[in-house]
Amino acid sequence: LQLLIKVKGKCTTDHISAAGPWLKFRGHLNNISNNFLITAINAENGEMNSIKSAVSGEFCAVPATAREYKSNGIGWVVVGDENYGEGSSREHAALEPRH
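User: That's the sequence. What structure does it adopt?
Assistant: Structure tokens below.
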């Protein structure tokens, strides 16, 4: 599996599916998934929502890169540093990686 992102520090449900920003993505889960891991800190570069694509070699947004991998048949994995999945936003946090 391709590493999508190694999260530096906490990776709670608020990082997987932040409560505030996802509200602008109302509607279909595909739209809500535009918020996937956008507030997580990338251990590689210390930035939020910026990961290097194994396909293009460019730094892109996490949701866009996950979709790029999916469309190219590339399986991926997220590595969380601390508290992965802890929190109260479990429903969206659990569903977002599917899209």
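The mean pLDDT is 83.
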